[in-house]
Amino acid sequence: MTSPRALWVLLLMAVAAGALAAPVKPRQAAIASAHVLATEAGFEVLGKGGNAFDAAVAVAATLAVVEPQSSGIGGGGLFLLQRASDGHEVMVDARETAPAAVDMRDYLGADGKPDRARSINGPLSAGIPGEPAGLVWIAQRYGKLPLKVSLAPAIRIARNGFKPDGRFLKEVAMRKEVIARYPASAALYLVNGEAPKPGWTFRTPDLARVLERIAEQGNAGFYQGDLARTLVEGVRAAGGNWTLADLERYEAKERAPIAFDYRGWRIVTASPPSSGGVALAEMLNVLGGYELDRLDKVHRTHLMVEAMRRAYRDRAEYLGDPDFVPMPIARLTSADYAAGLRAGIHPDKATPSELLPPYLAGEQGSHTSHFSIIDRDGNLAAGTQTVNLIFGSGLVVAGTGFVLNDEMDDFALVAGKPNAFGLLGNERNAPRPGSRPLSSMSPTFVIGPDRIGVIGTPGGSRIITMVLEGILAFIDGQPPAQLVANARFHHQYLPDVITAEKGAFSAAETKALEAMGHQVHESDRRWGFMNVVSWDRRSGKLQAAADPRGESGSGVVR
Ligand code: GLY
Protein backbone atom coordinates (compact mmCIF):
# COMPACT_ATOMS: atom_id res chain seq x y z
CA MET A 1 0.00 0.00 0.00
CA THR A 2 1.22 3.56 -0.76
CA SER A 3 2.15 5.56 2.36
CA PRO A 4 0.61 9.03 2.93
CA ARG A 5 4.12 10.49 2.50
CA ALA A 6 4.54 8.83 -0.91
CA LEU A 7 1.11 10.14 -1.91
CA TRP A 8 2.25 13.67 -1.03
CA VAL A 9 5.38 13.24 -3.14
CA LEU A 10 3.31 11.97 -6.06
CA LEU A 11 0.91 14.90 -5.68
CA LEU A 12 3.75 17.43 -5.60
CA MET A 13 5.34 15.81 -8.66
CA ALA A 14 2.02 16.01 -10.52
CA VAL A 15 1.61 19.70 -9.60
CA ALA A 16 5.19 20.44 -10.71
CA ALA A 17 4.71 18.58 -13.99
CA GLY A 18 1.46 20.48 -14.59
CA ALA A 19 3.22 23.76 -13.93
CA LEU A 20 5.96 22.85 -16.38
CA ALA A 21 3.46 21.80 -19.03
CA ALA A 22 1.37 24.96 -18.65
CA PRO A 23 2.10 27.36 -21.46
CA VAL A 24 4.41 30.11 -20.30
CA LYS A 25 3.16 33.57 -21.11
CA PRO A 26 4.86 36.92 -20.81
CA ARG A 27 3.42 39.10 -18.08
CA GLN A 28 3.62 42.19 -20.25
CA ALA A 29 3.77 43.13 -23.92
CA ALA A 30 6.68 44.65 -25.83
CA ILE A 31 6.66 46.80 -28.95
CA ALA A 32 9.57 48.43 -30.76
CA SER A 33 8.90 50.55 -33.83
CA ALA A 34 10.39 53.55 -35.59
CA HIS A 35 8.05 56.05 -33.91
CA VAL A 36 6.68 56.64 -30.42
CA LEU A 37 3.20 57.34 -31.81
CA ALA A 38 3.18 54.01 -33.67
CA THR A 39 4.34 52.13 -30.57
CA GLU A 40 1.64 53.86 -28.51
CA ALA A 41 -0.97 52.98 -31.16
CA GLY A 42 -0.01 49.34 -30.72
CA PHE A 43 -0.46 49.52 -26.93
CA GLU A 44 -3.76 51.38 -27.36
CA VAL A 45 -5.13 48.50 -29.42
CA LEU A 46 -3.72 45.87 -27.01
CA GLY A 47 -5.54 47.79 -24.27
CA LYS A 48 -8.79 47.35 -26.18
CA GLY A 49 -8.43 43.57 -26.06
CA GLY A 50 -6.41 43.17 -29.25
CA ASN A 51 -3.60 40.70 -29.77
CA ALA A 52 -0.14 41.19 -31.30
CA PHE A 53 -1.65 40.96 -34.77
CA ASP A 54 -4.17 43.74 -34.12
CA ALA A 55 -1.28 45.72 -32.66
CA ALA A 56 0.73 45.02 -35.84
CA VAL A 57 -2.09 46.51 -37.92
CA ALA A 58 -2.25 49.56 -35.64
CA VAL A 59 1.53 50.08 -35.64
CA ALA A 60 1.83 49.57 -39.41
CA ALA A 61 -1.01 51.98 -40.21
CA THR A 62 0.29 54.59 -37.78
CA LEU A 63 3.78 54.37 -39.29
CA ALA A 64 2.08 55.05 -42.63
CA VAL A 65 0.88 58.34 -41.16
CA VAL A 66 3.83 59.46 -39.04
CA GLU A 67 6.74 58.09 -41.09
CA PRO A 68 5.46 58.37 -44.68
CA GLN A 69 9.00 58.75 -45.99
CA SER A 70 9.62 55.11 -45.06
CA SER A 71 6.44 53.14 -45.56
CA GLY A 72 2.76 53.59 -46.11
CA ILE A 73 -0.56 52.77 -47.67
CA GLY A 74 0.98 53.46 -51.08
CA GLY A 75 3.69 50.83 -50.48
CA GLY A 76 3.95 47.26 -49.29
CA GLY A 77 5.40 45.00 -46.64
CA LEU A 78 6.16 41.54 -45.37
CA PHE A 79 4.68 40.50 -42.04
CA LEU A 80 5.86 37.49 -40.07
CA LEU A 81 3.42 36.11 -37.49
CA GLN A 82 3.57 33.31 -34.93
CA ARG A 83 0.37 32.42 -33.10
CA ALA A 84 0.98 31.23 -29.54
CA SER A 85 -2.14 29.05 -29.23
CA ASP A 86 -1.08 26.54 -31.90
CA GLY A 87 2.38 27.64 -33.05
CA HIS A 88 1.06 28.53 -36.52
CA GLU A 89 3.67 30.55 -38.41
CA VAL A 90 3.06 32.51 -41.56
CA MET A 91 4.44 35.31 -43.68
CA VAL A 92 1.81 37.68 -45.03
CA ASP A 93 3.17 38.93 -48.35
CA ALA A 94 1.86 42.40 -49.11
CA ARG A 95 4.59 43.24 -51.59
CA GLU A 96 3.72 45.54 -54.48
CA THR A 97 3.13 44.11 -57.97
CA ALA A 98 4.09 45.29 -61.44
CA PRO A 99 1.18 46.73 -63.44
CA ALA A 100 0.06 44.64 -66.43
CA ALA A 101 1.37 47.24 -68.85
CA VAL A 102 4.90 47.13 -67.43
CA ASP A 103 7.41 47.63 -70.21
CA MET A 104 11.12 47.45 -69.51
CA ARG A 105 11.79 49.94 -72.32
CA ASP A 106 10.13 52.60 -70.15
CA TYR A 107 13.16 52.48 -67.86
CA LEU A 108 15.69 53.27 -70.60
CA GLY A 109 16.75 56.75 -71.61
CA ALA A 110 16.74 58.06 -75.19
CA ASP A 111 20.26 56.61 -75.57
CA GLY A 112 18.96 53.10 -74.75
CA LYS A 113 20.84 53.03 -71.45
CA PRO A 114 19.13 52.43 -68.08
CA ASP A 115 17.71 55.69 -66.76
CA ARG A 116 17.55 55.30 -63.01
CA ALA A 117 15.48 58.48 -62.65
CA ARG A 118 12.54 56.67 -64.24
CA SER A 119 12.62 53.71 -61.88
CA ILE A 120 12.98 55.71 -58.67
CA ASN A 121 10.85 58.81 -59.32
CA GLY A 122 7.32 59.42 -60.50
CA PRO A 123 4.50 57.26 -61.83
CA LEU A 124 6.46 54.58 -63.69
CA SER A 125 8.43 53.76 -60.56
CA ALA A 126 5.29 52.85 -58.57
CA GLY A 127 4.08 49.27 -58.19
CA ILE A 128 0.51 48.42 -57.24
CA PRO A 129 0.36 48.92 -53.46
CA GLY A 130 0.12 45.86 -51.22
CA GLU A 131 0.02 47.43 -47.76
CA PRO A 132 -3.78 47.91 -47.57
CA ALA A 133 -4.45 44.28 -48.52
CA GLY A 134 -1.81 43.10 -46.04
CA LEU A 135 -3.39 44.97 -43.14
CA VAL A 136 -6.87 43.72 -44.06
CA TRP A 137 -5.54 40.16 -44.30
CA ILE A 138 -3.85 40.26 -40.90
CA ALA A 139 -6.83 41.87 -39.17
CA GLN A 140 -9.42 39.55 -40.67
CA ARG A 141 -7.54 36.28 -40.30
CA TYR A 142 -5.41 36.75 -37.19
CA GLY A 143 -6.73 39.74 -35.23
CA LYS A 144 -9.43 39.82 -32.61
CA LEU A 145 -10.69 43.33 -33.29
CA PRO A 146 -12.45 44.96 -36.25
CA LEU A 147 -10.35 47.17 -38.50
CA LYS A 148 -12.34 50.16 -37.24
CA VAL A 149 -10.66 49.67 -33.86
CA SER A 150 -7.16 48.74 -35.03
CA LEU A 151 -7.02 51.58 -37.57
CA ALA A 152 -8.53 54.15 -35.18
CA PRO A 153 -5.24 55.55 -33.81
CA ALA A 154 -3.83 56.06 -37.32
CA ILE A 155 -7.04 57.73 -38.51
CA ARG A 156 -7.05 60.06 -35.49
CA ILE A 157 -3.42 61.10 -35.92
CA ALA A 158 -3.84 61.62 -39.68
CA ARG A 159 -6.80 63.90 -39.03
CA ASN A 160 -5.59 65.79 -35.94
CA GLY A 161 -1.96 65.98 -37.02
CA PHE A 162 1.34 65.70 -35.18
CA LYS A 163 4.66 67.50 -35.13
CA PRO A 164 7.19 65.56 -37.21
CA ASP A 165 10.69 64.95 -35.88
CA GLY A 166 13.91 66.30 -37.37
CA ARG A 167 14.51 63.16 -39.45
CA PHE A 168 11.17 63.60 -41.24
CA LEU A 169 11.95 67.27 -42.01
CA LYS A 170 15.49 66.47 -43.16
CA GLU A 171 14.21 63.73 -45.44
CA VAL A 172 11.57 66.01 -46.98
CA ALA A 173 14.44 68.38 -47.79
CA MET A 174 16.42 65.49 -49.36
CA ARG A 175 13.53 64.61 -51.73
CA LYS A 176 12.23 68.16 -52.18
CA GLU A 177 13.08 68.38 -55.85
CA VAL A 178 10.99 65.31 -56.78
CA ILE A 179 8.16 66.13 -54.35
CA ALA A 180 7.90 69.62 -55.89
CA ARG A 181 7.15 68.11 -59.34
CA TYR A 182 3.69 66.92 -58.29
CA PRO A 183 1.20 69.53 -56.99
CA ALA A 184 -0.55 67.19 -54.52
CA SER A 185 2.83 66.00 -53.18
CA ALA A 186 4.04 69.58 -52.75
CA ALA A 187 0.78 70.58 -51.06
CA LEU A 188 1.12 67.70 -48.61
CA TYR A 189 4.80 67.78 -47.67
CA LEU A 190 6.11 71.27 -48.51
CA VAL A 191 5.34 74.72 -47.13
CA ASN A 192 5.59 77.42 -49.81
CA GLY A 193 7.67 75.04 -51.88
CA GLU A 194 10.19 74.41 -49.10
CA ALA A 195 10.75 71.66 -46.54
CA PRO A 196 8.78 72.57 -43.40
CA LYS A 197 10.53 73.95 -40.32
CA PRO A 198 10.54 72.35 -36.84
CA GLY A 199 7.26 72.97 -35.04
CA TRP A 200 5.16 72.42 -38.18
CA THR A 201 2.05 70.30 -37.75
CA PHE A 202 1.52 67.62 -40.38
CA ARG A 203 -2.12 66.76 -41.05
CA THR A 204 -3.35 64.43 -43.76
CA PRO A 205 -7.17 64.31 -43.65
CA ASP A 206 -7.28 62.67 -47.10
CA LEU A 207 -5.30 59.74 -45.73
CA ALA A 208 -7.65 59.62 -42.71
CA ARG A 209 -10.55 59.18 -45.17
CA VAL A 210 -8.66 56.47 -47.09
CA LEU A 211 -8.03 54.57 -43.85
CA GLU A 212 -11.70 54.96 -42.89
CA ARG A 213 -12.73 53.45 -46.23
CA ILE A 214 -10.42 50.49 -45.60
CA ALA A 215 -11.81 50.16 -42.04
CA GLU A 216 -15.37 50.11 -43.36
CA GLN A 217 -15.03 48.17 -46.63
CA GLY A 218 -11.81 46.17 -46.31
CA ASN A 219 -10.00 45.65 -49.62
CA ALA A 220 -12.89 47.03 -51.67
CA GLY A 221 -12.37 50.40 -49.98
CA PHE A 222 -8.97 50.72 -51.59
CA TYR A 223 -8.79 48.46 -54.63
CA GLN A 224 -12.24 49.22 -56.06
CA GLY A 225 -14.64 52.13 -56.41
CA ASP A 226 -13.93 55.84 -56.23
CA LEU A 227 -10.50 55.64 -54.63
CA ALA A 228 -9.26 53.11 -57.20
CA ARG A 229 -10.53 55.36 -60.00
CA THR A 230 -8.85 58.41 -58.46
CA LEU A 231 -5.56 56.53 -58.17
CA VAL A 232 -5.62 55.18 -61.72
CA GLU A 233 -6.58 58.54 -63.22
CA GLY A 234 -3.92 60.33 -61.17
CA VAL A 235 -1.14 57.90 -62.06
CA ARG A 236 -2.08 57.91 -65.76
CA ALA A 237 -2.34 61.72 -65.86
CA ALA A 238 1.21 61.87 -64.49
CA GLY A 239 2.46 59.52 -67.23
CA GLY A 240 2.01 56.07 -65.65
CA ASN A 241 0.24 52.95 -66.88
CA TRP A 242 -1.90 51.60 -64.02
CA THR A 243 -5.37 50.25 -64.79
CA LEU A 244 -8.39 49.53 -62.60
CA ALA A 245 -7.82 45.83 -63.29
CA ASP A 246 -4.30 46.06 -61.77
CA LEU A 247 -5.80 47.30 -58.51
CA GLU A 248 -8.74 44.91 -58.54
CA ARG A 249 -6.47 41.92 -59.14
CA TYR A 250 -4.10 42.71 -56.28
CA GLU A 251 -4.15 40.22 -53.43
CA ALA A 252 -2.04 39.69 -50.32
CA LYS A 253 -0.64 36.17 -50.11
CA GLU A 254 0.24 33.84 -47.29
CA ARG A 255 3.56 32.09 -47.64
CA ALA A 256 5.40 29.59 -45.50
CA PRO A 257 8.35 31.35 -43.87
CA ILE A 258 11.91 30.09 -44.31
CA ALA A 259 12.74 28.20 -41.10
CA PHE A 260 16.00 26.47 -40.21
CA ASP A 261 18.19 25.51 -37.30
CA TYR A 262 21.35 27.37 -36.34
CA ARG A 263 23.27 25.65 -33.55
CA GLY A 264 20.13 24.77 -31.60
CA TRP A 265 18.30 28.01 -32.35
CA ARG A 266 15.30 28.02 -34.64
CA ILE A 267 15.38 30.91 -37.09
CA VAL A 268 12.08 31.81 -38.75
CA THR A 269 12.30 34.48 -41.40
CA ALA A 270 11.06 35.89 -44.68
CA SER A 271 10.61 33.71 -47.75
CA PRO A 272 10.55 34.88 -51.39
CA PRO A 273 9.68 37.35 -52.77
CA SER A 274 12.16 38.41 -50.11
CA SER A 275 15.69 37.22 -50.63
CA GLY A 276 16.32 37.72 -46.91
CA GLY A 277 15.42 34.30 -45.55
CA VAL A 278 17.24 32.33 -48.23
CA ALA A 279 20.34 34.49 -47.79
CA LEU A 280 20.17 34.23 -43.97
CA ALA A 281 19.81 30.45 -44.17
CA GLU A 282 22.73 30.23 -46.56
CA MET A 283 24.95 32.47 -44.42
CA LEU A 284 24.06 30.88 -41.08
CA ASN A 285 24.38 27.36 -42.51
CA VAL A 286 27.90 28.29 -43.64
CA LEU A 287 28.74 29.96 -40.31
CA GLY A 288 27.25 27.07 -38.31
CA GLY A 289 30.27 25.01 -39.32
CA TYR A 290 32.66 27.28 -37.41
CA GLU A 291 33.16 27.94 -33.71
CA LEU A 292 32.57 31.67 -34.21
CA ASP A 293 32.65 32.45 -30.51
CA ARG A 294 36.17 31.03 -30.22
CA LEU A 295 37.54 33.24 -33.00
CA ASP A 296 39.05 36.71 -32.72
CA LYS A 297 36.97 39.51 -34.19
CA VAL A 298 39.01 39.74 -37.39
CA HIS A 299 38.59 36.06 -38.29
CA ARG A 300 34.97 36.08 -37.25
CA THR A 301 34.36 39.10 -39.50
CA HIS A 302 36.31 37.48 -42.33
CA LEU A 303 34.11 34.36 -42.23
CA MET A 304 30.92 36.40 -41.98
CA VAL A 305 31.98 38.47 -44.99
CA GLU A 306 32.79 35.33 -47.00
CA ALA A 307 29.33 33.95 -46.16
CA MET A 308 27.72 37.30 -47.13
CA ARG A 309 29.63 37.40 -50.44
CA ARG A 310 28.39 33.95 -51.46
CA ALA A 311 24.79 34.50 -50.36
CA TYR A 312 24.49 37.80 -52.23
CA ARG A 313 25.94 36.19 -55.36
CA ASP A 314 23.24 33.55 -55.19
CA ARG A 315 20.61 36.20 -54.53
CA ALA A 316 21.55 37.86 -57.83
CA GLU A 317 21.54 34.60 -59.73
CA TYR A 318 18.61 32.61 -58.41
CA LEU A 319 15.90 34.63 -56.69
CA GLY A 320 12.68 36.27 -57.86
CA ASP A 321 8.91 36.04 -57.40
CA PRO A 322 7.94 32.49 -56.34
CA ASP A 323 4.67 32.74 -58.29
CA PHE A 324 6.54 33.31 -61.55
CA VAL A 325 9.96 31.69 -61.48
CA PRO A 326 11.33 28.36 -60.25
CA MET A 327 14.02 28.72 -57.59
CA PRO A 328 16.36 26.11 -56.09
CA ILE A 329 15.46 27.11 -52.53
CA ALA A 330 15.81 23.65 -50.99
CA ARG A 331 19.32 23.38 -52.41
CA LEU A 332 20.40 26.92 -51.45
CA THR A 333 19.22 26.42 -47.88
CA SER A 334 20.62 22.91 -47.45
CA ALA A 335 23.46 21.89 -45.15
CA ASP A 336 25.23 20.14 -48.05
CA TYR A 337 25.26 23.30 -50.14
CA ALA A 338 26.65 25.24 -47.17
CA ALA A 339 29.34 22.60 -46.68
CA GLY A 340 30.33 23.05 -50.33
CA LEU A 341 30.55 26.81 -49.91
CA ARG A 342 32.55 26.42 -46.71
CA ALA A 343 35.07 24.23 -48.51
CA GLY A 344 35.85 27.17 -50.80
CA ILE A 345 36.51 29.62 -47.98
CA HIS A 346 40.16 30.18 -47.08
CA PRO A 347 40.53 30.68 -43.32
CA ASP A 348 42.79 33.69 -43.70
CA LYS A 349 42.27 35.04 -47.22
CA ALA A 350 39.42 36.88 -48.90
CA THR A 351 37.96 35.26 -52.01
CA PRO A 352 37.78 38.00 -54.66
CA SER A 353 34.14 38.12 -55.81
CA GLU A 354 35.28 37.89 -59.42
CA LEU A 355 36.65 34.41 -58.68
CA LEU A 356 33.22 33.09 -57.68
CA PRO A 357 31.27 31.55 -60.56
CA PRO A 358 29.92 34.54 -62.48
CA TYR A 359 26.21 34.90 -61.97
CA LEU A 360 24.25 34.74 -65.19
CA ALA A 361 23.20 38.28 -65.86
CA GLY A 362 20.24 37.80 -68.04
CA GLU A 363 22.91 54.99 -52.90
CA GLN A 364 21.82 54.44 -50.02
CA GLY A 365 19.20 56.57 -48.19
CA SER A 366 16.70 53.79 -48.59
CA HIS A 367 13.62 53.89 -46.53
CA THR A 368 11.61 51.22 -45.00
CA SER A 369 10.38 50.62 -41.46
CA HIS A 370 10.47 47.62 -39.18
CA PHE A 371 8.48 46.90 -36.01
CA SER A 372 8.59 43.98 -33.57
CA ILE A 373 5.85 42.91 -31.16
CA ILE A 374 5.32 40.29 -28.42
CA ASP A 375 1.96 40.29 -26.62
CA ARG A 376 0.96 38.89 -23.22
CA ASP A 377 -0.09 35.59 -24.78
CA GLY A 378 3.30 35.14 -26.42
CA ASN A 379 2.06 35.90 -29.96
CA LEU A 380 4.87 37.26 -32.12
CA ALA A 381 4.63 39.77 -34.96
CA ALA A 382 7.42 41.25 -37.04
CA GLY A 383 6.62 43.62 -39.88
CA THR A 384 8.92 45.25 -42.37
CA GLN A 385 7.16 47.66 -44.67
CA THR A 386 8.33 50.12 -47.27
CA VAL A 387 7.77 52.64 -50.02
CA ASN A 388 11.39 51.85 -51.11
CA LEU A 389 13.51 55.03 -51.28
CA ILE A 390 12.75 58.10 -49.15
CA PHE A 391 9.20 59.27 -49.98
CA GLY A 392 9.02 56.51 -52.61
CA SER A 393 8.17 57.80 -56.07
CA GLY A 394 7.45 61.28 -54.66
CA LEU A 395 4.03 61.11 -56.34
CA VAL A 396 0.90 61.78 -54.31
CA VAL A 397 -2.33 61.51 -56.30
CA ALA A 398 -4.57 64.46 -55.41
CA GLY A 399 -7.22 63.56 -52.85
CA THR A 400 -5.43 60.50 -51.44
CA GLY A 401 -2.97 61.91 -48.88
CA PHE A 402 -0.26 59.27 -49.32
CA VAL A 403 2.82 58.89 -51.46
CA LEU A 404 3.17 56.02 -53.93
CA ASN A 405 6.12 53.68 -53.70
CA ASP A 406 9.03 53.38 -56.14
CA GLU A 407 9.34 49.63 -55.71
CA MET A 408 9.70 49.02 -59.48
CA ASP A 409 13.40 49.76 -58.94
CA ASP A 410 13.66 46.52 -56.92
CA PHE A 411 13.12 44.57 -60.14
CA ALA A 412 16.16 43.80 -62.30
CA LEU A 413 14.89 46.25 -64.92
CA VAL A 414 18.04 45.78 -66.95
CA ALA A 415 19.77 42.44 -66.40
CA GLY A 416 23.27 42.83 -65.03
CA LYS A 417 22.83 46.50 -64.10
CA PRO A 418 22.64 47.34 -60.42
CA ASN A 419 19.56 48.92 -58.85
CA ALA A 420 19.57 51.83 -56.38
CA PHE A 421 21.15 49.57 -53.75
CA GLY A 422 23.85 48.35 -56.11
CA LEU A 423 22.09 44.96 -56.21
CA LEU A 424 22.28 42.84 -59.32
CA GLY A 425 19.72 40.52 -60.76
CA ASN A 426 18.71 38.67 -63.86
CA GLU A 427 15.71 37.37 -65.74
CA ARG A 428 14.34 35.69 -62.61
CA ASN A 429 13.75 39.13 -61.08
CA ALA A 430 12.54 40.78 -64.28
CA PRO A 431 9.15 42.50 -64.04
CA ARG A 432 6.19 40.57 -65.40
CA PRO A 433 2.58 41.72 -65.29
CA GLY A 434 1.42 41.15 -61.70
CA SER A 435 4.80 39.91 -60.40
CA ARG A 436 6.45 41.03 -57.18
CA PRO A 437 9.96 42.54 -57.13
CA LEU A 438 12.62 40.77 -55.09
CA SER A 439 12.99 42.30 -51.64
CA SER A 440 15.60 42.25 -48.90
CA MET A 441 13.06 42.76 -46.12
CA SER A 442 13.77 40.19 -43.42
CA PRO A 443 11.42 40.19 -40.44
CA THR A 444 12.83 37.40 -38.27
CA PHE A 445 12.12 35.36 -35.13
CA VAL A 446 15.09 33.87 -33.27
CA ILE A 447 13.78 31.08 -31.08
CA GLY A 448 15.98 29.38 -28.51
CA PRO A 449 15.10 27.05 -25.69
CA ASP A 450 14.87 29.93 -23.23
CA ARG A 451 14.97 33.17 -25.19
CA ILE A 452 13.02 34.54 -28.14
CA GLY A 453 13.99 37.58 -30.20
CA VAL A 454 11.94 39.43 -32.82
CA ILE A 455 14.32 41.27 -35.13
CA GLY A 456 14.23 43.38 -38.26
CA THR A 457 15.36 46.63 -39.81
CA PRO A 458 15.12 48.89 -42.83
CA GLY A 459 18.25 49.46 -44.89
CA GLY A 460 17.81 48.27 -48.48
CA SER A 461 20.40 45.70 -49.48
CA ARG A 462 21.97 45.96 -46.02
CA ILE A 463 18.87 44.66 -44.27
CA ILE A 464 19.96 41.05 -44.57
CA THR A 465 23.46 41.53 -43.19
CA MET A 466 22.16 43.73 -40.36
CA VAL A 467 19.69 41.00 -39.43
CA LEU A 468 22.49 38.42 -39.61
CA GLU A 469 24.59 40.50 -37.21
CA GLY A 470 21.54 41.03 -34.99
CA ILE A 471 20.78 37.28 -34.84
CA LEU A 472 24.36 36.40 -33.91
CA ALA A 473 24.49 39.14 -31.27
CA PHE A 474 21.19 37.95 -29.78
CA ILE A 475 22.40 34.36 -29.67
CA ASP A 476 25.63 35.59 -28.03
CA GLY A 477 23.43 36.98 -25.25
CA GLN A 478 23.51 40.68 -26.08
CA PRO A 479 20.41 42.54 -24.83
CA PRO A 480 18.28 44.27 -27.49
CA ALA A 481 19.43 47.76 -26.47
CA GLN A 482 23.01 46.77 -27.20
CA LEU A 483 22.45 44.82 -30.39
CA VAL A 484 20.43 47.59 -32.04
CA ALA A 485 23.22 50.06 -31.23
CA ASN A 486 26.15 47.95 -32.50
CA ALA A 487 28.18 49.44 -35.36
CA ARG A 488 27.52 47.41 -38.52
CA PHE A 489 29.38 46.08 -41.53
CA HIS A 490 28.18 44.77 -44.85
CA HIS A 491 29.34 42.94 -47.96
CA GLN A 492 27.09 42.19 -50.94
CA TYR A 493 29.33 40.33 -53.41
CA LEU A 494 29.60 43.29 -55.75
CA PRO A 495 31.00 45.84 -55.24
CA ASP A 496 33.71 43.69 -53.64
CA VAL A 497 34.13 45.81 -50.55
CA ILE A 498 33.25 45.67 -46.84
CA THR A 499 31.31 48.80 -45.97
CA ALA A 500 31.45 49.58 -42.26
CA GLU A 501 29.91 52.11 -39.96
CA LYS A 502 32.34 54.20 -37.93
CA GLY A 503 33.37 52.20 -34.90
CA ALA A 504 32.70 48.79 -36.44
CA PHE A 505 36.45 48.08 -36.59
CA SER A 506 39.50 49.51 -34.87
CA ALA A 507 42.38 50.68 -37.06
CA ALA A 508 44.25 47.46 -36.24
CA GLU A 509 41.24 45.30 -37.18
CA THR A 510 40.82 47.14 -40.48
CA LYS A 511 44.51 46.61 -41.20
CA ALA A 512 44.25 42.90 -40.42
CA LEU A 513 41.21 42.51 -42.69
CA GLU A 514 43.05 44.35 -45.46
CA ALA A 515 46.03 42.03 -45.01
CA MET A 516 43.63 39.13 -45.68
CA GLY A 517 42.70 40.75 -49.01
CA HIS A 518 39.52 42.56 -47.98
CA GLN A 519 38.87 46.11 -49.01
CA VAL A 520 37.29 48.05 -46.14
CA HIS A 521 35.40 51.26 -46.69
CA GLU A 522 34.35 53.22 -43.63
CA SER A 523 31.05 54.91 -44.35
CA ASP A 524 30.49 58.40 -43.01
CA ARG A 525 26.78 57.58 -42.72
CA ARG A 526 24.91 55.50 -40.18
CA TRP A 527 22.42 53.04 -41.53
CA GLY A 528 19.39 51.04 -40.48
CA PHE A 529 16.82 51.56 -37.75
CA MET A 530 16.69 48.13 -36.16
CA ASN A 531 13.81 47.53 -33.75
CA VAL A 532 13.95 44.48 -31.52
CA VAL A 533 11.89 42.90 -28.75
CA SER A 534 12.86 39.87 -26.71
CA TRP A 535 11.39 37.52 -24.15
CA ASP A 536 13.40 35.49 -21.66
CA ARG A 537 11.12 32.62 -20.65
CA ARG A 538 13.27 31.76 -17.61
CA SER A 539 12.98 35.14 -15.93
CA GLY A 540 9.81 36.21 -17.76
CA LYS A 541 11.61 39.41 -18.68
CA LEU A 542 10.57 41.27 -21.82
CA GLN A 543 12.80 43.88 -23.44
CA ALA A 544 12.18 46.32 -26.28
CA ALA A 545 14.77 48.46 -28.00
CA ALA A 546 14.49 50.98 -30.78
CA ASP A 547 17.61 51.84 -32.74
CA PRO A 548 19.36 54.90 -31.28
CA ARG A 549 20.05 55.99 -34.87
CA GLY A 550 16.32 56.71 -35.10
CA GLU A 551 13.84 57.94 -32.56
CA SER A 552 14.59 56.96 -29.00
CA GLY A 553 11.75 55.99 -26.70
CA SER A 554 9.81 53.93 -29.23
CA GLY A 555 10.83 50.59 -27.74
CA VAL A 556 8.45 50.01 -24.82
CA VAL A 557 7.51 47.18 -22.42
CA ARG A 558 4.22 47.60 -20.60
N1 GLY B 1 12.61 48.18 -51.11
C1 GLY B 1 13.60 47.53 -50.39
C2 GLY B 1 13.39 46.07 -50.28
O1 GLY B 1 12.27 45.61 -50.33
O2 GLY B 1 14.33 45.34 -50.15
Polypeptide structure, described:
This protein is an alpha+beta fold and 558 residues long. Helices cover 37% and strands 15% of the residues. It folds into 2 domains: 37-77 and 95-253 and 391-407, no CATH class; 255-364 and 442-557, Serum Albumin, Chain A, Domain 1 (Orthogonal Bundle), CATH 1.10.246. The strands form 3 sheets. It has a 7-stranded antiparallel beta sheet, with helices on one face. A hairpin with a 5-residue loop joins strand 7 and strand 8 (380-389). The chain is globular, with a radius of gyration of 23 Å. The model is unreliable at 7-22 (pLDDT under 50). The site of glycine (GLY) has 9 residues, from strand 8. Residues 368, 386, 388, 407, 410, 439-441, 460 line the site of glycine.
Labels describing this entry:
558 residues; 16 strands; seven-stranded antiparallel sheet; six-stranded antiparallel sheet; single chain; binds glycine; Serum Albumin, Chain A, Domain 1
